[in-house]
Amino acid sequence: MNTSDFDGTAARSVAERLRTWEWIYLGYLLFLPAQPYFSPDPAWWEWPLTITVCAATVLLYALALLRGPSGWNLWASLVPMAVLGALATPFNAAASVLFIYAAAAAGNALPWPVARRWFTALTVLDCVTALLSQVPLLYRLLGFASALVMVWVVGLLELQQRDRRQELENQRLRTSQVELLATLAERERIARDLHDLLGHSLTAVVMRAQLTKELVLADPQRARAEAEEIERNAREALAAVRSTVTGWRRTSIRAELEVARRTLAGTGVALQVSCAEEPALVAATEHELGLALREAVTNVARHARASTCRIGLDTDGERVRLVIADDGIGGDAAEGTGLTGLRERVARLGGAVQRSGSAGTTLTITVPKAVAG
Questions:
Q1: CA 84 vs CA 81, 150, 166, 291, 312: distances in Å
Q2: 201-226 pLDDT per residue, tens
Q3: Strand 270-275 vs strand 308-316: parallel, antiparallel, or unpaired?
Q4: CATH number of the domain at 267-373, please?
Q5: Which strand ranges, in their side-by-side order, compose the sheet holding 308-316?
Q6: Taking the model in full, what pTM does it have?
Q7: Domain coordinates in residue numbering, the chain
Q8: Residue range 127-176, pLDDT digits in tens
Q9: For residues 54 and 61, what is the distance between their CA atoms, to the nearest angstrom?
Q10: Among 92, 87, 82, 74, residue whose Cα is nearest residue 38
């Protein structure tokens, strides 16, 4: 499991725990039967009233939690709870717990300025019902005083938990977005590398196959050698595909110069390499620069109709310059996907590509040196 998976799972786990605590608030309903149970002479209607109030509270509170704290769902739970509390508390002080549930519903859904006004209104309603109550003074003090405090405590806790849940949901969405962007970037990398690697390898295979076909009767020994080279190129292409998909492939300037030598030799193009000193590059930079070299050589072999290709590599202060020049047809033809991809690859390194189409074609690739420490 990667870090983003862990972050997303942790966010969901914490949000679920916060939601579980909201159901625990129903435990306050246990106070409602206290008054008729301990009353020395309860009226006949006290027990039915208590059961009805408990059932209605559970229904309204569940509506607020399960259907979502927005729109008519909010008002269909918040307002009836406050009204039911105002009607029941004059006869049962513990019914003031409904003000607490109304505060929880308000804190769970309303912004702080509106929720604060609701908490204040519920506090006033609690005081008014205390004055109108027929409950003995002791029950009245216990019920209404505790409700007076808990309206604010529970309401503020719900506000805090709602903000926390929103933060966790935002974190989960950010994690999902990062995962999506990483997936898209990986797909682009694979597509780009496959184009560069397979484009070169398959070009070499096609050209050598054409040469082999011409040599089968004229020079069987050389045709056999070319067929062996075709097999080698195909195996290298297969290995490149596998390593590209797994993300472990790394190439180097030295390796790509050898690949360029074999590729151009198969098409009858002479290669001249000028490299005073091989620069020390970080692996990622050398890999990208090596693939850029491969794409440029592939274009020479495929399109240039050249007899000579010159590759030069030198450093200029903090920058590395790679020059690929041929004596082919040149011109200012529109750039294909290969050269466009090469420009994008070099741009990611903070470099640039210059193209000249006079007297053949010259590509000058300049990137930051990025010397490994």
A1: 5, 18, 30, 75, 87
A2: 777 778 878 888 888 888 888 888 88
A3: parallel
A4: 3.30.565.10
A5: 270-275, 308-316, 319-326, 361-368, 352-356
A6: 0.42
A7: 3-179, 267-373
A8: 887 777 766 666 666 667 777 788 888 888 888 877 887 787 777 777 67
A9: 10
A10: 92
